[in-house]
Amino acid sequence: MNIETRRTKAIAGQKPGTSGLRKKTRVFMEPNYLENFVQATFDGIGGGAGKIFVVGGDGRFFNKAAIQTILKMAAANGATTAIVGQDGILSTPAASHLIRQNAADGGFILSASHNPGGIDEDFGVKFNAENGGPAPEKLTAKIYDATLAITEYKTIDAADVDLNVIGSTQVGDMVVHVVDPVDSYQKLMESMFDFNAIRALFADGFTMKFDAMHAVTGPYATAILEGALGAKPGTVINGIPLEDFGKGHPDPNPIWAKPLVDLMMSDVAPDLGAASDGDGDRNMIVGRGAYVTPSDSLAILAANAHLAPAYRDGLAGIARSMPTSAASDRVAKKLGIDAFETPTGWKFFGNLLDVGKVTICGEESAGTGSSHVREKDGLWAVLLWLNILAVRKQSVADIVTDHWQAYGRDYYSRFDYEDVATDKANQLMDGLRAQLTDLAGRNEAGLTVKAADEFSYLDPVDGSQSHNQGVRIMFDGGGRAVFRLSGTGTQGATIRLYLEQFSGVNGDISQDTQDALKNVRDAAHIISDMEGLIGRITPDVVT
Ligand code: G16
Question: Tens digits of per-residue pLDDT, 44-69?
């Protein structure tokens, strides 16, 4: 094997964000950009010698080329084995499963998740550790340090691997196994859910549309829903992964999956609508005439999980990211189990899952998952909903209403302000920070501030601390506003404003969401002086 050591220089700005390194695709295509980050990853994890890696992505533009680069660099860095999805395809949860199943040392996942794909859109690389989960902060810090210190990278001069053909081949001294991307993931799902009950549900005439948004879950959903579970052909729509996702945003929310939501609100709605994102870790659930917020979905899945075989013995605990509504905390309380509140980012659930403190976790950003892998898992959430529907034999809308009647309703909405000048966004956050100690007792828009802080997290497992994880303003009467800057954007800054209002147990659960949130929203705008600082209070995206 002819290892080539090529000279390079540090490239600024390769700091992994909430979910790996995400940039414009053309940036990744610049000389040495990808190579530097991949070499820094090998350096950050203590080298590649003797190691096994999983490699795959969501099929977006540059996926296959990036995989070839990574395979050659893995071989040059001494890896013994690479496991790659056929055609370069692996959903993020399937990659997580393969890492765990094969006791691999980690994996490279090529995706910018829900961001659009194409030469003028976004690309990303994320390293997942041997537990199958996103690299924890201490590892991403090492990788970042290595990007600053880099002077050379290693590769070999070898032919590209034929990614279309399942089988084993060599790249230098490294064995590459090209595997069916769906197979072992499907087996995992079959082992967790009552496929017979779900099959019977479909056989009884239950109807569904699953929008794969031209992204990675197409092959998974087609094989599992239409193949194994007998859903009607055509249940999966936009099921062929495209390099540009059909020029859409593969983000499963009422904005980007509007055609599906419109269908679900119409007279010809099927019983269930669902969608997943670019890399298959996010999900959206919509019943006939009933959109289920991700925060409610987490709570309802947790409250009903025991109906699925995998969770028959109950849950160890429930974790949610801080901006996610408190709905799941109420479920944990009723079940008598622990509830954890972590910073945004799936990596923070990893330790809790690894030591068995929690079984189910979720985030407001349309992510739900469990201890079966170390990523959020879009199809898993859909299958758990299907399992619950098959057992309860009620509509989605009735299940949601029952839940609110039992626990109260957490009205919830997220406002996104995109492409804000970074200095203005920082000014807004700094302005909030400066007021924190004086906010309690202040009255705005008819609400009194009960408490305010900036969220910090002390990991109960490894003792690591994470600061500056979002400003929280709690109001008397069960309202809350959270401000946070997105960690996944590729252009300017995105301010996220998360609004929440609890109805109270036995409170009014029938209001319009935005009406119920009006006071919290107005108070948040006034306290942050958003209009004065960024010149607008109307968001780009409301979910
Ligand atoms: C990523 C993380 C999620 C997190 C989200 C937050 O999602 O994996 O755990 O909730 O980022 O995004 P932001 O920082 O923009 O609010 P994904 O689906 O992009 O990998």
Answer: 999 999 999 999 999 999 999 999 99
Asked if pLDDT for residue 18 goes beyond 90, the answer is: no
What is the fold, at CATH topology level, of the domain defined by 185-407?
Answer: Alpha-D-Glucose-1,6-Bisphosphate; Chain A, domain 3 (3.40.120)
pLDDT score for 19: 81
Q: Cβ–Cβ contacts within 10 Å for residue 219, how many?
A: 24
Whole-number Å distance, alpha carbon 19 to ligand 1 midpoint, is 6
Pocket test for ligand 1, best of 15, 18, 361, 429 (most atoms within 8 A of CB): 18
d(CA 437, CA 475): 15
Report CA(365)–ligand 1 centroid distance (Å).
7
* Pairing state between β 493-502 and 479-485: antiparallel
Distance 364 CA to ligand 1 centre (A): 10
Q: Is 113 a catalytic residue?
A: yes
Architecture of domain 410-542 in this structure:
2-Layer Sandwich (3.30)
Q: Where are the CATH 3.40.120.10 domain residues in the chain?
A: 3-180, 185-407
DSSP conformation class of 282: B
**Strands (E) located in 226-302:** 236-237, 272-276, 283-287, 290-292
> Cα separation of 353 and 338, whole Å?
13
Pairing outcome for strands 360-363 and 3-7: unpaired
Which among 127, 121, 122, 123 is positioned nearest to 144, based on CA atoms?
127
Distance of CA 95 to CAs 30, 56, 196, 281, Å? 26, 7, 26, 11
**Helical spans, DSSP H, in 150-230:** 183-192, 195-203, 217-221
The distance from CA 348 to its chain's CA centroid, rounded to whole angstroms, is 12
* Ligand 1 pocket member 96 (CB < 6 A): no
Is the Cβ atom of 363 under 6 angstroms away from ligand 1?
Answer: yes
Q: What is the pLDDT of residue 279?
A: 97
Assigned token pair, 17: 């964000």
The C-alpha atoms of residue 109 and residue 19 are separated, in whole angstroms, by 10
Q: How far apart are CA 29 and CA 394, in angstroms?
A: 50
Phi, psi torsion values for 512, nearest 5 degrees: -70, 140
Determine the distance from the C-alpha atom of residue 473 to the mean position of all C-alpha atoms in its chain, rounded to a whole number: 25
Catalytic residue among 113, 328, 365, 528: 113
pLDDT computed for residue 490 by the predictor: 72
Q: Which atom of ligand 1 is nearest to the CA of 321?
A: 10
Pairing, β 443-444 against β 541-542? unpaired
Q: What are the residues whose beta carbons fall under 8 Å from the beta carbon of 447, sequence distance 6 or more?
A: 475, 476, 477, 479, 519, 520, 523
Under DSSP, the state recorded for 128 is E
> Under DSSP, is residue 57 helix (H, G, I), strand (E, B) or coil?
strand
Query: Which CATH architecture best describes the domain 3-180?
Result: 3-Layer(aba) Sandwich (3.40)
